[in-house]
């Protein structure tokens, strides 16, 4: 998510937090510039703790800070702090102030500090470090938020850094009554400092469940109490009385110490008992940061507020917070920082190279300017080679990236089945980067009825008793929903995954992976590429992920190619099978309707044509088998052309006979007339064939029969050996009419006669006694046109 993609409310809160620090920085700079050039007493105050404001006052005995006990011979304990100190100070330039202070080493110390004009160098010496620390806090918080906008950790860190940065900017100020804008801001930040550590403690090292609720009511309570505390601080400032201020200081420091102990306890528990190594690593880093950095200022302020004993200059203690700050930033930006390592190494090498060239150029200029010009020519030749060597060192595998991608593409192009494609995809991440083998899978229905899993995940799934479909895994469902890559570390630390962490860990374990990328086709996720752990523990760079996504897309194209090839092969086989029964024009219509799969058995009105040779038995006994086969081929060829011409469906050739029917699988309104026209055309062809047969003394002729009626149409047989035909009484009557017909005669039923056009020449034959029929069947002879 980018910063500009946030809602209006989110952007408003972000602007408010940034403005909170910017206002403090402006107030602090105005205060310090206002004091420059005026008489300065030599120290600044934070309660009764004083720190040197000039180097000479540090040398006189205030180095390391101290607790103010007496000023110019009078005790100030238990009295209004700033007004009491201001009223007893000598402010005339050249005068001296006598202080009795408590320092960390000595019990009591008497110090005399002269009053002189404050210079800008004094401000930088005394207060520049703390101001710079505040800037560091804000910069770290702002950069973290820019890199990971609107994440719970980013919100917590930005709030902590903005409030802490503003507080640090104003913590050291001149002695005397504070002006209202400065005091109001400082007391407000002091009150909010009670809230932001609690917020950070809930967000790190992993986000607490309380922050996941929408709306996050716990934050309302935290910052509501912080505002109440700020109001109390402002009231205490308005009264300017040391008693309430002292008790507020004890409360503030006690609360800060409790939050620190809670943070230490939470980090320690996660470091020792969590199952996820990344969470344990984050917890150990933060535990070290809070022990080395965060605990020191909390402890120092608590001791100084409760016992009144000066322990350490608070400025030194605050600088230790930078350790905790860096630990928080390192935890929030682990991936970004890991990816920046190569860029940092490149910057160091470039810096060294440019420095060496600069030194060389300066040396050559001192000899002759023309030598520098001569240096440019070889430099133009050497620098590209230097760039190539640097890339080879920083990115050893990226240098071979184009060649590796090309070879992966060749492997995908050579795959002949989905399993081969997944095998190539499984090996691709290891060939492109330093990762261990992973897995690749396709959902059920993408390349077959079952899901396909290849790689390490397949072996683990076979060893496991849990064979849950991958599509049912919460991790995979999350990938399908987000349609983007998911990393194990995201599941570990990002709050939206807290309810499915255990299930997601199990899925990563099952796939043998640390990351999961979607395989998409037409904006739809059809599978996933599970990537193993990196050998060196580096984070994934965006370029690497884009290359892997490109490779996954190549895999999708390979799957599309395989699917198209299989469909084409199946279509060719289906076309060849249908060609046994139907003429080409019928096949095209059948394929357009979905192919043979759409040819379901159905009851339909059809017209059936039968033809059978007369005298074929005696003919086959009197000639050689080769002559019989040649004659049949001649006869079938002539008859087959007519079947295709009139778009009939050929059920079968059976020796010297064959059967054709019409009006299925494609509807033909003129199916009866088609059958009659085909029979007459075949009658003419037979007349020509008989002339040739007569010259060879073959006494062969054919009888034909036609009947129309209802029958069941569909495939008959079994897979690999089947025919398309019709079953019903209509086929029996057509066959019997063909048997009853004499050579050269076409007999049709009364049903056919009733549907033929009136100009058709028909001649009544009478009622025929046909086998299989109890009642005589009226028949008519179809005659060719005169």
Molecular structure report:
- By secondary structure, the chain is α+β, with helices and mostly antiparallel strands.
- It is 58% helix and 16% strand.
- It contains 27 helices and 21 strands.
- The strands form 4 sheets. Strands 14, 15, 16, 17, 18, 19, 20 and 21 form an 8-stranded mixed beta sheet that branches. Strands 2, 3, 4, 5, 6 and 7 form a 6-stranded antiparallel beta sheet that branches.
- α4 packs antiparallel against α5 and α7 packs parallel to α9 (242-273).
- The longest helix is centred in the last third of the chain and has 37 residues, at 542-578.
- The radius of gyration is 48 Å and the shape is elongated.
- The mean pLDDT is 82.
Mean pLDDT value: 82
Strand content: 15-25%
- Percent in helix: 55-70%
Structural class: alpha+beta
Helical region count? Answer: 27
User: How is the main sheet built?
Assistant: 8 strands, mixed
The general outline is: elongated
The stretches of 5 or more residues where confidence is low (pLDDT under 50) are none
- Alpha-carbon distance between the two ends: 88 Å
Radius of gyration from the alpha-carbon trace, in angstroms: 48 Å
Total number of strands: 21
Q: How is this fold's topology laid out?
A:
Layout (H helix, E strand, L loop, with lengths): L7 H28 L3 E2 L2 E4 L2 E4 L2 H8 L3 E6 L2 E2 L5 H8 L7 E7 L6 E6 L1 E2 L2 H28 L4 H19 L9 H13 L3 H8 L13 H23 L2 H32 L3 H31 L6 H6 L1 H12 L1 H34 L1 H26 L6 H14 L3 H15 L6 E4 L9 E4 H8 L10 H9 L3 E2 H6 L7 H11 L3 E7 L2 E8 L10 H37 L5 H9 L9 E13 L1 H7 L2 H21 L3 E6 L2 E6 L8 H25 L5 E18 L2 E7 L1 H12 L5 E4 H6 L6 E7 L8 E6 L4
Parallel strand pairs: 17-19
Antiparallel strand pairs: 1-8, 2-3, 3-4, 4-5, 4-6, 6-7, 9-10, 9-13, 11-12, 12-13, 14-16, 14-17, 15-16, 17-18, 19-21, 20-21
Helix pairs in contact: 1-4, 1-5, 1-6, 4-5, 4-12, 5-6, 5-7, 6-8, 7-9, 9-10, 10-12, 13-14, 15-16, 15-21, 16-21, 24-25
């Amino acid at each position: 998510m980018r910063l500009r993609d946030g809602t209006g409310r989110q952007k408003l809160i972000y602007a408010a937090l940034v403005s909170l620090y910017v206002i403090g920085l402006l107030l602090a700079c105005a205060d310090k510039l206002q004091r420059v050039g005026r008489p300065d007493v030599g120290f600044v105050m934070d309660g009764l703790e004083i720190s040197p404001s000039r180097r000479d006052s540090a040398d006189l005995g205030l180095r390391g800070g101290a607790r103010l006990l007496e000023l110019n011979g009078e005790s100030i304990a238990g009295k209004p702090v700033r007004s009491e100190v201001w009223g007893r100070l000598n402010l005339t330039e050249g005068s001296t102030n006598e202080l009795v202070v408590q320092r960390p080493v000595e019990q009591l110390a008497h110090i005399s500090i002269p009053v002189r004009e404050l210079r800008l160098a004094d401000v930088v010496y005394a207060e520049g470090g703390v101001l710079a620390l505040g800037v560091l806090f804000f910069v770290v918080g702002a950069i973290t938020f820019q890199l990971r906008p609107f994440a719970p950790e980013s919100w917590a860190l930005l709030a902590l850094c903005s409030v802490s940065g503003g507080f640090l900017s104003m913590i050291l100020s001149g002695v005397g009554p504070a002006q209202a804008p400065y005091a109001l801001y400082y007391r407000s930040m002091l009150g909010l400092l009670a809230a932001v550590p609690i917020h950070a403690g809930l967000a790190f090292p992993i986000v607490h469940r309380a922050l996941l609720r929408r709306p996050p009511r716990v934050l309302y309570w935290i910052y509501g109490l912080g505002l109440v505390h700020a109001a109390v601080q402002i009231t205490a400032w308005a009264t300017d009385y040391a008693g309430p201020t002292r008790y507020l200081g004890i409360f503030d420091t006690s609360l800060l110490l409790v939050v620190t102990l809670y943070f230490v306890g939470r980090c320690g528990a996660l470091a020792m008992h969590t199952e996820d190594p990344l969470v344990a690593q984050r917890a150990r880093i933060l535990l070290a940061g809070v022990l080395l950095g965060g605990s020191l200022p909390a402890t120092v302020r608590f001791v100084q507020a409760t016992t009144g004993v000066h322990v350490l200059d608070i400025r030194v203690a605050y600088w230790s917070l930078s350790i905790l700050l860096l630990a928080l930033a390192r935890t929030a930006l682990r991936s970004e920082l890991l990816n920046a390592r190569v860029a940092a190494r490149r910057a160091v090498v470039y810096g060294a190279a440019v420095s060496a060239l600069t030194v060389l150029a300066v040396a050559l200029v001192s000899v002759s300017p023309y030598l520098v010009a001569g240096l440019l020519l070889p430099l133009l030749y050497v620098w590209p080679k230097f760039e190539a060597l640097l890339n080879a060192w920083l990115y050893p595998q990226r240098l071979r990236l184009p060649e590796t991608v090309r070879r992966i593409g060749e492997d995908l192009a050579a795959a002949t089945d989905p399993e081969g494609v997944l095998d190539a995809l499984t090996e691709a991440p290891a060939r492109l980067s330093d990762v261990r083998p992973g897995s690749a899978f396709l959902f059920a229905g993408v390349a077959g009825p079952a899901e396909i899993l290849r790689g390490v995940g397949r072996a683990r799934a076979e060893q496991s008793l849990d064979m849950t479909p991958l599509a049912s895994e919460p991790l995979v469902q999350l990938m399908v929903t987000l349609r983007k890559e998911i990393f194990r570390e995201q599941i570990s630390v990002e709050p939206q995954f807290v309810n499915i962490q255990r299930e997601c860990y199990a899925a990563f374990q099952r796939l043998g992976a640390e990351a999961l990328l979607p395989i998409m086709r037409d904006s739809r996720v059809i599978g996933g590429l599970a990537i193993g752990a990196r050998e060196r523990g580096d984070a994934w760079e965006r370029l690497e992920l884009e290359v892997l996504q490109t490779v996954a897309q190549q895999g999708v194209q390979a799957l599309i190619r395989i699917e198209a090839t299989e469909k084409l092969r199946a279509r060719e086989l289906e076309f060849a099978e249908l060609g046994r029964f139907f003429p080409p024009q019928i096949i095209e219509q059948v394929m357009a309707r979905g192919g043979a799969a759409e040819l379901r058995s159905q009851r339909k009105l059809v017209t059936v044509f039968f033809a059978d040779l007369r005298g074929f038995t005696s003919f086959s006994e009197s000639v050689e088998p080769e002559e019989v086969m040649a004659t049949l081929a001649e006869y079938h060829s002539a008859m087959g052309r007519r079947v295709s011409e009139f778009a009939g469906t050929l059920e079968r050739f059976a020796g010297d006979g064959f059967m054709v029917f019409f009006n299925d699988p494609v509807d033909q309104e003129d199916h009866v007339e088609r059958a009659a026209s085909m029979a007459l055309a075949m009658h003419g062809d037979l007349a020509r064939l008989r002339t040739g047969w007569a010259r060879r003394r073959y006494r062969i002729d054919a009888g034909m029969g036609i009947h129309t009626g209802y029958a069941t149409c569909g495939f008959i047989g079994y897979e690999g050996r089947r025919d398309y035909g019709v079953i019903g009484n209509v086929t029996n009557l057509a066959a019997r009419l063909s048997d009853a017909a004499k050579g050269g005669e076409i007999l049709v039923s009364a049903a056919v006669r009733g549907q033929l056009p009136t100009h058709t020449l028909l001649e009544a034959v009478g009622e025929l006694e046909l086998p299989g029929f109890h009642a005589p069947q009226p028949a008519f002879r179809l005659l060719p046109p005169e």
